[in-house]
Amino acid sequence: MRYTGAEPAVARLAAAARARLPEMTEDTFAHIIAEMPVYADARFVSHEKLWSSCDANLRFLLRALEEPGTPDLSQAAATGQERAHQGAPLPELLRAFRIGFTEVWQQFVELTGSDDDTAGLIAATRALWTLIDDYTETLTEAYRTTLAEITRTRHEKRLALVEALFAGGTATEGTLWDIARMLDLSLDGTYLVVAAETPGLGQEPLPGMENLLRERLYASAWRLTPELRVGVVSLRERNAADAVMGLLKENATGRIGVSPVFTGLGNTARALHLARVALSSLMPGTSGIVQFTESPLAGLVASDPEAAAQLAHQVLRPVLELPGEDRNVLLMTLRAWFDCRGSTKLIAERVYCHPNTVRHRLKRITDELGRSLTDPADIAELGTALRALTMFPDAAHLPPVP
């Protein structure tokens, strides 16, 4: 029920109480400080501002009880908005309001001098508690609306900062500092970047991961795109990477790529690229997690996917153009040659064939490619081309370089 205006008896009590406003303000302020630690410690509101708020709200309350018509509740709304911006808890705010209303009622009791005034006190009490409902409803609505707007604005700003962090390139030192502060990340901390493939358009592949990491005291920031959920995870120490990897494995539902451990928030965009490269090394449709832990050469290859793919096609084109089975056998043998450091015996064990078969295949590879497995320059090009082909399998389908 809405308060619709003062009865004559209520107006008289309110007018009499208004003469005691300084005393009521002091008593209300003192009770709030004595009963509520959050206000006693000035945790959200200074004592000076709290006193001013007590005075303003008591004035509005008495005026509403004294004057006819719909009461002005703007002060209640203003207080709700201000406390939301200050971060004060809503239950504590409502409790402080109740202390102020109780102070007014006690003044009414003291001003009721005889039994003949009892009817007036009853009317004032009824009016006061109706007005309490109106005040608290207005205050609560203003508080929640303001808090929702603050939360939305912060969320949008956080998303923008995370986007800037992963995009890289345009971030200055000052911008990075703002990003680090807003995301609660260290500018020169140690990190991992995670790239998880979404199971469907915009669907979450790692539900609750940010909270799981927070429970284990790992700060992180995440962004969801139509195809990926990407996050940067702060490690308290470098060897914490194993614990984070374990947590990711426990919750993996699809392909997940992870960057190498790196230092410095400004390197996040580069790390994201490596995490995506690691993800692409997993077969589509499978579930698993791979960390990019290759050599510096692999990092160099990954830094320019287009050039790396062109290199792979240019160096390996004669083999790539062979029929499927021949192509796969020769590529497998060449990879084994690098992995086994040229040992024919180890290659034979790796690919399950006779050493003479290995020698025959290697001879065919060098003939097809026109390159030697004894020339350091040829070996370097072949090794780089194989890495590029592994990271970017589509290189096998590029058109010939003009």
Automatic annotation (TrEMBL):
Domain CdaR GGDEF-like, first and last residues per copy: 169-280
Gene3D superfamilies reported for this sequence: PucR C-terminal helix-turn-helix domain
Source superkingdom: Bacteria
PucR C-terminal helix-turn-helix domain sequence ranges: 330-388
Ranges of residues in domain RsbT co-antagonist protein RsbRD N-terminal: 22-158
InterPro entries in the record: CdaR-like_regulators, CdaR_GGDEF, PucR_C-HTH_dom, PucR_C-HTH_sf, RsbRD_N_dom
Family membership: Belongs to the CdaR family.
PANTHER family: CARBOHYDRATE DIACID REGULATOR, DNA-BINDING TRANSCRIPTIONAL ACTIVATOR ADER
Name of the protein described by the UniProt record: PucR family transcriptional regulator
